[in-house]
């Protein structure tokens, strides 16, 4: 069997810097002695965080007056997309 060297981006240690959920595709290829080969593709999801924050704007135009307080709705979701209770969101607008 021949050794396969994967690009550095496929190194699981580099996934720790992910900023969002990743869909990972694994392509495997087995070479047989007669020259034939078999391939298989498997997919997996990698979540670098246990929870995610969703923000909903109060109106559809996305324009707001400066110097005036604006409230946004927030939701905390698990990596499976289910709401999670008991978390507070603190946001800073620059």
Ends distance: 55 Å
Please write the string of helix (H) and strand (E) elements: EEEE
Helix content: under 10%
Oligomer: single chain
Q: What best-fitting shape do the alpha-carbon axes yield? A: elongated
Biggest sheet, open or closed, and with what strands and sense?
Answer: 2 strands, antiparallel
The whole-number mean of residue pLDDT values reads 81
Spatial strand arrangement across the major sheet: 1-2
- Tell how many strands the DSSP assignment holds: 4
Taking pLDDT < 50 over at least 5 consecutive residues as the criterion, the unreliable ranges are: 1-5
- Label the structural class: mainly beta
Helical stretch tally: 0
Instruction: Work out the strand percent.
Output: 25-35%
Rg from C-alpha positions? 22 Å
